[in-house]
Amino acid sequence: MRDRVAATAGLVICALLGGLQIIASLSGLTLDSAPPLAIVITGGVLGLITLAAVAPAWRGSRGALLLVIASRAAAALLAAPALFIDQSSLVR
User: Burial of 8 by CB count in 10 Å (0-12 exposed, 13-18 middle, 19+ buried)?
Assistant: First the structure.
């Protein structure tokens, strides 16, 4: 019972993160100082993959659950370089 509650909470959080990533990707296309187009598109695709895999994972598909985990891990790796960029060198 306790594992099922944790899995449900995890899938809800992953679905929210996937949806927010799609929204951020769409808004990233309209910014003046937008990130590179490849990064924006990759982020949106990872969000779509997450949302598409959450429903089968909710029904118990182990493969879909692994796909959700892999897409969230890839999204985290995609965002990691932003943590190490020196912002003072970008501001002119």
Answer: exposed
- pLDDT tens, residue by residue, 36-61: 888 889 999 999 999 999 999 999 89
Classify residue 80 by its DSSP letter.
G
On whether the CB atoms of residues 22 and 51 are closer than 8 A, the answer is yes
Token pair listed for 24: 């951020």
The rounded distance, in Å, linking the Cα atoms of 22 and 75 is: 11
What the block records as the tokens of 15 is 């679905």
Does the predicted model carry a pTM greater than 0.70?
yes
Q: Compute the distance between CA of residue 23 and CA of residue 48 in angstroms, rounded to an integer.
A: 11
Helix (H, G, I), strand (E, B) or coil at 59: coil
